[in-house]
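Title: Prediction job returns without error message
Component: structure pipeline
Severity: low
Priority: P3
Assignee: unassigned

Description:
Job completed but the reporter wants confirmation the result is attached to the right record. Sequence as submitted:
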Amino acid sequence: MEPRERLDRLGWFIPLRLASFVIIFAVVVFWMHYPGFLRLQFITYSVFTLFFTVLLAFDKKLRLKDLVTSVIAFQFLLEISIESGIIYATGNVHSSFSALFILTIVSAALVYRLVGTLLVASLVSMAYAFIIWLGLSSTVRPDISMKALRTIFSAQDSVFYSIFLHILIFYLVAFISGYLAERLKSQGRQLAATSRALRRARLETDDILRHLNSGLLTIDSQGYIVYFNHAAERILGYREEEVKGLRCEEAFSERMPHLVTALLDGLNHCTEHPRQEVMIRNKDGTSLPLGLSTSILTEESQTLRGVIAIFSDLTEAKRLEAKVRTADRLAAIGELSASIAHEIRNPLASISGSVEVLKNELQLTGENERLMSLIVKESHRLSKILSGFLSYARIDRPTYSKLELCHVISETIEILYHHDSFRDNINIGFQSDESIVYVVGDEDLVKQLLLNLAVNACEAFAGNPGDLTFRLAVGRGQNTVELYVQDNGPGIPREQLKKIYQPFYSTKRQGTGLGLSIVHRICSSLKININVTSQENEGTTFLIEFAKFSPEKVGKEPAGTAGPVVPV
């Protein structure tokens, strides 16, 4: 038995024995007014036990753990002495207090088990026989005390039978109580071991279920929620204490009726849903796709016990799925653009050249001149679209090298000053935490990426004054460099943010819809992240995350990124 368990078991035993003997002392000495020679024994016993109980109560480091059993043994000796005195003073063989010995024997069983209890019973038997002999001897002359002893063991004397019966009872009680104590000890050990194993299994199982990444909830056969793990709290937006003990309809009907339907299908019709997708609403009212599986819980008798539901948030999976679809669609368009460009560009060049010659040689007026100018204008526009197609199609596997990003941005700004989209009322600024910033990338593709973003911003101003800023933020101790391309233009409506990277999607009258598609394709090719945030009438910010330069990254694709983030 462990020291702490031992003290816990015996700690209450010592003061209990003290209290019982204080009561007996009060009854025998004060109330029944028996001889006072017992007072010293009672006081010695009480003071000793009380003192040790106080020490035991303040023993925080278990220094007295080895003394407890010894102290209790001394207690038993004092008790036997006191009990012998009480029996001697209250009628000897006819005393009604002989049952006190039985209490001592039973108490010993709680401490010393079978062997110790039989030993205590032997001491009690000898003490009882001694006080009976002492009582008989005191009533006769000393010279005939041996005759009193022979009288005790005389078969015809009732005193012998009384002593024999008491001793028999003492040993019988000792054996029964000791045996029961041994059985209780054995069963207690088994119960403790089983309880520890059960508690450990419960803790392990509960830890596993509570820390699953998937949400888990169970309802009983009446539809009440009985289990709700941490992932369920995070996904569904409820605290466990808010829903546990409620019926599932009461807890979830308002925001997630499809979940309630799946649970009740299992409860009422024993229908399981191995895998299905349902929509729920968050507390803020936004929709959330949920992957849901339900299973039936049954007893051994196949009676319904409840329903278990396992679910997960599919938002990230949906986002990745949309990203893959976008990449596939863009790749297909890239292949198509290359074919179209090769098939159309050469005939278009011939047509455009011929029309230019005719326009210069023929003296056209009126409607004919307007139509000729329209043909030239549309030929140039078609040529511009084909050039965008070719730019889109040429983006292939980049060549990674050491790239000084500040220099690339400066060159991009210089090119922008001479671009058709630039106006004198547009202010272009450049801010950087450091004067020299090295990243990993392809210079031509990065320059095209930045130029397309800048041209898109300039065209968004639509002739109005505006500010365009390139800002570099170098993360300390990180492996990324953040480039912000910010403008204070009209912004992009929320519903259009999902479409800005789609080819041919444009809100501008003269736009081809390929500028941001090329940006997306370059980011995918370079495997860098791009995010966009925009507020109407406040402006738009594109965040591009480059990998910091290190010699081992040159000529290799950056690790740890799967491509651009499509805004949602």
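Comment from assignee: result matches the submitted record. The chain has a mean pLDDT of 76.
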